[in-house]
Amino acid sequence: MKPILTACLALLLLSGCSPKVLTAQSTADGTRTLNLDASTSVATIQPTMYGLFFEDINFAADGGLYAELVKNRSFEFTLPKTGWLEPGTDKFSLNESSGKSDVIKIGEDRANSNYLRVTVMGPDYVLINEGFRGMGVKEGDRYDLTLAAAVGEGNISRIQVQLIDPDGAALGEATIDLNGSDWKNYAATLTAERTLDKAQLKLTFTGTGTVDLDMISLFPQDTWKGRKKGLRKDLVQLLDDMNPGFLRFPGGCIVEGRTLAQRYQWKKTVGPIAEREYLINRWNTEFDHRPAPDYYQSFGLGFFEYFQLSEDMGAEPLPILSCGMACQFNTGELVPMDELDPYVQDALDLIEFANGDVTTAWGKVRRDMGHPEPFNLKYIGVGNEQWGPEYIERYKVFNEAITAQYPDIVIVSGSGPFPDGEFFDYGMQQLTELGTELVDEHYYRSPEWFRENATRYDSYDRNGPKIFAGEYAAQSVAIASPENKNNWNCALSEAAYMTGMERNADVVVMTSYAPLMAHEEGWQWTPDMIWFNNLQSYGTANYYVQKLYATHAGTDLLRITEGGEPLTGQQAFYATAAKDATTNELYIKVANTGAEPQSLNIRIAGAEPSTTATVLTMASDDLEAVNSFAEPMKLSPIESSVNLQKNELRVEVPAHAFVVYTIQL
């Protein structure tokens, strides 16, 4: 159903006029008077206030942000032929050692030990890769194919490479001429003749005999910043458009792993792509309602690429590392304290990788990957959302070692998976006593919780740790329910809650919605901020709320009050205000979660505002409304303008609305 717009917004959409301006004569008795002091900065709003949390969940990396189109390109999945189809009966065979061999065929690379031996007995012996729920290709776009091959017995001399549709019809093709029994790298370029979201890659062989294949890869040329074998441009553009202050990576629960052996190990994600060791993704069978046994991590999107992406967007990189504890919702496996040194060394080496001189061991690795300049890492996280004495004990060791060697690095600690309760209280007490700089809080709660807790940080100790709201999202049904929706009720409730985070910018210095993105056919967890399929992507209502905050953050918090009190939900109304000292703009953010419009008279003191305000409005009386591939902008900001009367902004805020006013000072 389409949202039922308020009369004000409906007129706005139809006529292009600005929201209703209330003159002194037309002001109703119910008009609320707000006072805004633009002369005094209450607190500095950190550049990191609004950022991004990325985790490889919901096919967000392989099959998503990482633009590789071939699934299981080097045959390293537990079932080595996963993703590869052998059409017909008894037409395709594997050498006995293929898919499980210890043969090393490119240098001394033991991370990529598997390869495929194809026995070709005729022209109809073909090999097909299905991609990540298919391959999205666009008419006229060019795609780079690379592979490693070694010809064995027989006379195989050529491989025809085709993009095909589900009926087998070719969408584009190229040929590769093979020569020699030694491993060699080959390349070809295909141009798509049609747009299709479910294409596949087909390999047909000329001659008979055997040929060994590995690292069969297909990338669009049109990637983010045109980088070869890079990132999917439309997805990065959605992120970059948010002007994020930081990028937290690589998670999330994948940092911890179900077991310690399955934890994320950053050193295995840097260096040459072919030498990065595959790992089963911990989300592949986490939920019975969404099993994904073909969900692995190739680490083509590794720590170097995360740092590079952060740099591209002007965002501070925030890596999170294992603290020697597997996920406590799974095995809870612990590294004994006397065996923790390698984990601590991983943290120290990561800082060297990011910031070290090129003469250092890990600085040289960064240089060899094409980035001799340091990444200027300032933050590092120890653990994801661990809790209890075991975490505090291990955190102390990391804290002491990192602080001793890199005293300027800010260490992010965790308060556990919940915003209250025994685990949270214990963690916050211990971390506060330790003098921790920055504590990561997580909360996935109902929309009602978000609206009712806009005052959460009002009572926090101003001399205690700073807060990183690292994972949060309103859940329309329940935590981890497959029925959760990115509906307007959730997004509006988050908008209301965020006024409380911004109002406490002296305590809250980093915030990020989670999870960030999800594949339409490959998700495990909902809700998610960005949805995509093989060709399209869109931002949810939650995305646009986050974007409005991030692009109107300001540098200085201002006081906006009603009767001397902050707007924290009285009569379902919330507000915050900020000034940008660089642009000299005033930002007023208001959320009306009630079912009736609200008439406001905002009196601006301490500055001389311009005569016109730019207005960005999100509103709908249909609280269940969502954006979709069919209607990607259904819930998104509508721009208009309104005139000020001297130093007063008189407006009517629609029901169920989030509005941002920008005024030049």
Q: What does this protein look like?
A:
With 665 residues, the protein is α+β, with helices and mostly antiparallel strands. The protein has three domains: 7-45 and 555-664, Golgi alpha-mannosidase II (Immunoglobulin-like, Sandwich), CATH 2.60.40.1180; 52-65 and 224-550, TIM Barrel, CATH 3.20.20.80; 84-220, Galactose-binding domain-like (Jelly Rolls, Sandwich). Helix content is 17%, strand content 30%. It has ten helices and 35 strands. Strands 1, 2, 27, 28, 29, 30, 31, 32, 33, 34 and 35 form an eleven-stranded mixed sheet that branches. An eight-stranded parallel sheet has the order 3-15-18-19-20-21-22-23. Strands 4, 7, 8, 10, 11 and 13 form a six-stranded antiparallel sheet that branches. α9 runs parallel beside α10. The two termini are 41 Å apart. Residues 1-28 and 99-109 have low confidence and may be disordered.
How is this structure best summarized?
By secondary structure, the protein is of the alpha+beta class. Helices cover 17% and strands 30% of the residues.
